Backbone:
DNA sequence: TCCTACATGTAAGGCGTTACATGATTTA
DNA sequence: TAAATCATGTAACGCCTTACATGTAGGA
């Protein structure tokens, strides 16, 4: 159950509400993990009962009241021992690549069109990551943000992935064009 | 439900048993999809009932009897209309990168050690892909294998991904070393 | 003799998505 | 006036993993 550990990791950095945690997944972790609030709230409940985290009710005017969670020493232990275990080979699911695998069932024109769409989608994602980079890490790994080095590493991995995806789309399209030339 | 479409895709290429299909996921599609036999057998059953595929009992000596499935015209329609829909942004889950995100909870020595382990794991995966490439696509996209072009594209994506992962590991380790030098 | 390949199934339980449900305040 | 933000929850259903279950033939 890695979501539990992801929540412990985020709470090891700062106290947060379920709402905050949900947003962190959306905004800065989407290329390697994600979870909706309907999964997060019940899990926080359960983790609190198991003594991994604790919360405090905070009453607010103007805004709804909230529950602010923090990690307990026991939670920290659980996090660290999880980090030390070498991860098993992660099994990706990429519906987009899965479709490409079966593109022989479409016309060549159509597949080129779909590959162009993919390239544009990757470009848009890349632009988003670059904005994050410019905002939070303006001078790269040397940016003086405490605790931010590994967050920067994972963002870099996202950027490299998107760049590589774009190169792959271009290469695939060029291969299809070559094939067309040969057969005509 | 993409597994259904993955099965249709594989059956659009050749008749197969549940066992064959299970092996194809393991051997050549693991970097973008996976499924175990306990998921595949009941789903084939259901798809047969819905008229997407049909099967024939084949009695064998020496080996257990088997059910050979083939795709129906209706299955082919379902496959093609799925292919035409632009995929929604795929949401990856990469436990390995998730751990990296929280490495600040470990010592710097330890994180370097773990990153080296990752690099070696990616190298091993890459070696496996390269063997597949040498076996099935010895002269690249021009290899005269009918229907094999898109299978080659997806394999190339796997190779590029692993190469990029290795570069990222090296880069991360070098960043950590620099930081150590600065602070000492 | 033990392991691997071939071959097909079921069952329990956990994980994850989508939809339902509420409601005040701020911004466009 | 409509939408977004803040904020927390529940329920139904489907997907997926792990384990249980069985049996033959061939190779090391």
Residues:
């Amino acid at each position: 159950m890695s979501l539990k550990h992801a929540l412990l990791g985020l709470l090891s950095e700062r106290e947060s509400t379920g709402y905050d945690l949900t947003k962190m997944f959306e905004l800065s972790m989407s290329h390697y993990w994600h979870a909706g609030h309907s999964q997060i709230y019940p899990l926080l409940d359960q983790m609190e009962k198991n003594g991994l985290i604790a919360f405090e009710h905070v009453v607010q005017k103007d805004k709804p009241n909230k529950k602010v969670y923090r990690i307990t020493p026991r939670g920290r232990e659980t996090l660290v021992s999880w980090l030390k275990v070498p991860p098993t080979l992660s099994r990706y699911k990429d519906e987009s690549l899965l479709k490409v695998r079966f593109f022989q069932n479409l016309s060549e024109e159509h597949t080129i069109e779909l590959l162009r769409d993919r390239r544009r989608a990757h470009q848009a994602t890349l632009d988003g990551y670059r904005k994050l980079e410019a905002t939070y890490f303006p001078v790269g790994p040397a940016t003086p943000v405490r605790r931010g080095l590994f967050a920067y590493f994972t963002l870099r991995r996202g950027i490299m992935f998107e760049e590589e995806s774009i190169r792959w789309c271009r290469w695939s399209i060029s291969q299809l064009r070559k094939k067309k030339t040969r057969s005509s």
